Amino acid sequence: MSTTMTQVGAIARRSVVRTSRQPASIIPPLIFPIALMLVNAGGLRSSTELPGFPTDSFLAFALAVPFIQGALFSTMNAGTDIARDVQTGFVNRLSLTALRDWPLLTGQLAGIVVLGVVQVLFYIVVGLVAGVRFESGPAGIAVLLFYGALVALSFGALGAWLAYRTGSGETIQALFPVLFVFLFISSMNTPRNLIGVDWFRIAATLNPVSYMIECVRSLIITGWDWQALALGFGFVIILGLVSLRLASGALRSRMART
Amino acid sequence: MANEKAQNGIEVRGLVREYKKGPRAVDGIDIVVEPGEIYGFLGPNGAGKSTTVHVLTTLLPPTAGTALVGGYDVVKDGPKIRGLIGVALQEAALDPLLTARDHLRLQSTLQSVPKAEREPRADELIHRVGLVDAADRKVSGYSGGMKRRLDLALALVHSPRILFLDEPTTGLDPQSRTDIWNEVALMRREAGVTVFLTTQYLEEADVLADRVGIIDQGKIVAEGTPAELKAEIGRPSIHAIPRTEDDRPKIAAFLAQFGEPLASTRDVAVRLNDGLGLTDIVRAVDANGVDIADLELHAPTLDDVFLAKTGRTLEGAAEEAETAGQEKRSR
C-alpha cells in the first residue's frame, strides 16, 4: 500500500475509533431520527388517506427522513471533532508530520462515511423489522447504502469546511438548527404536490433537501424513479463538490507551513 | 565535523517574526546550536520563545532573517526539516479519546516508520517514558505529567536527530519535572540528539542546558553556559529579612554601604562589593546592633543574570506579560 493510502487509512481509523468511544456521538444519530419518525408516523398516519398520497404506509414514506437527519447529526459531530483538533493544537501535531493536507481530509471524511453507512444500515434494518417493503429490492438497498455514503461525505465535507474555517465547535453547533430548518421546510412529512400552503410548497420545491429525501423515498416506496434518483444524486454531488473544494481550501490555510 | 554540524545543528541569523497588528514577537535574533547540545531558551511568557520554535519547526514563516535546521532552510525545505525533527509543543495536543498506544501507532504511521517497526517502537517508547501500566487507557484519564511524557514519546517516534521541546515541564509537579529532565538528558547522552528547549524555569535551564540564551521582548539579552552567565554577574548578593516593615528603610540604608541595592519585595538585598563576604556583613550587623530577622547569602543565579540584563526579575517580567495580555484581552 502506498504511503499516502496508509496515512489516509490511519486518519480514518482514528476518526472511527474516537467516534466509537463517544456513545453520545453514536446513539443520538441512530435513535433521535427513528424516534422522530415514529412520532410523526403515529400522528400523521391519516395523511395516507389524502388523494394522491403515494403509499398506504406512512412509516415507509417517513423512513427517508432519518437518512438525511442522521447525516445532519453526523455533520455536527464530525465538524465539532475537527474544530476540537484545531483548538487543541492536534492539527499542528499533524502538520509536523509528513502528512499532506488532502490525505488528512480524505482520512477524516472516510471515517465519517464509514459511520454514515453504519447509520443507514441501522435505519434500513429498523425499516425491515417494522415491516417496510423496499420496492427497489436488494439492489435498491445497495443504492441506498451508496447514497448514504455520498450524503455523509457531502455533509461531512460541509462540517469539515466550517471547522477548519472557524476552528470553533460552538460555530458548528450554532449551524445545526439552521440545517434543521432546511430539513423541516422540505417534503419530509408531505409530498410536495400535496402541500396546501403556497409559500411552504414553493420553499420545499426550492429546497435541495426535498430532492435528497425524495431520492431515498423513491427507492423505498416507488422502485426505480430515475428522475428522483437523478435529482437526489445531482444535488448531493453538487453539495459534495462545493463542500470538498471549500474544505480543502480551509484545511490548506489551517495547515499553512513552510 | 562540518558535515555533522550541518546535519544536526541549528543556525539562526537575524531572525524576525512580526504578527499582523502586533509588535515584533522575535526581533532579529542570532542563535547557533551545536550538534548534540542542549540549548536552553529562557524567558518569561510572551518573550518570543514559542514563536521562535514555531518558525524553526516550519509552522510559521519568518518575516526576515535566515534559519537552518539540520542544514536545511526553514523557508525552502519545510518537508525535509519535518522529517528530521521531533517536536513537543507547549500544549500537549493529545486526543483524549485515544490511548497512548493509539497515539504512537498513528504518529509512527504518519511519520512513515516502517510497518514492522511500529509496534516494537511503540513498546520501547511506552516503557521508556514509564507509561506501561497506562498504555491502553484513554488519555483523558492521564495526569499532566503523563500527558507530557506521552508527548515526548510521540516526538521521539521516528528517532529524530533534533528535538524541539517548548516548555515541556510547565505546570508539572517536581517529580514529573525531574522525570522529563532525566529523559531529555538520557536522549542526548545515548542518541546524541540536539535539543532546543524553551523554558521559563531558571532551575530547568541551569540543570539541563549546556548553553542558555535569555530572551526578553523578542531579543536575546544574554547567551552562554550557565556558569559563564553567572560569572558575568560575579558577585554574590546579601538578603536581609527585616523583623518588621518599619525596619526596612533603616536596614536598606545600612546595607547600602556594602554594595549596590537590588529590587526585592520580600527582603532588602544588595549585590556585594568585591572582596566582601557573609562574615563581613554579620560582623558589621553585630557591631552596629542592627535588628534583622534573617540574613542570607545568594550565589548568582540565572535570575540575577536576567535582572542584570533587563532590569527586571524573571518572575516580574512574567507578571508584566500576564497583565499586558489581560489588558489586551479586555480591550
Put the structure in a nutshell.
The complex is a heterodimer of chains A (258) and B (331). Chain A has 258 residues and is mainly α. Helix content of chain A is 79%, strand content 0%.
List keywords for this structure.
heterodimer; A: 258 residues; mainly alpha; 11 helices; 79% helix; elongated; B: 331 residues; alpha/beta; Rossmann fold; Alpha-Beta Plaits; 2 domains; six-stranded mixed β-sheet; four-stranded antiparallel β-sheet; 13 helices; 42% helix; 24% strand
Structural write-up:
The complex is a heterodimer of chains A (258) and B (331). By secondary structure, chain A is mostly helical. Chain A has one domain. Chain A contains eleven helices and no strands. Chain A has helices at 3-20, 23-43, 58-62, 64-88, 90-95, 101-129, 137-166, 169-184, 198-206, 208-222, 226-254. In chain A, helix 1 crosses helix 6 and helix 4 (64-88) runs antiparallel to helix 6 (101-129). Chain B is of the alpha/beta class and 331 residues long. Chain B has two domains: 2-230, Rossmann fold (3-Layer(aba) Sandwich), CATH 3.40.50; 235-299, 2-Layer Sandwich (Alpha-Beta Plaits). Chain B has 13 helices and 14 strands. In chain B, the strands form three sheets. A six-stranded mixed β-sheet of chain B has the order 6-7-8-3-9-10, sandwiched between helices. In chain B, strands 2-1-4-5 form a four-stranded antiparallel β-sheet. A four-stranded antiparallel β-sheet of chain B has the order 12-13-11-14, with helices on one face. In chain B, a hairpin with a 5-residue loop joins strand 12 and strand 13. The longest helix of chain B is centred in the middle third of the chain and has 18 residues, at 174-191. The model of chain B has no long low-confidence stretch (mean pLDDT 86).
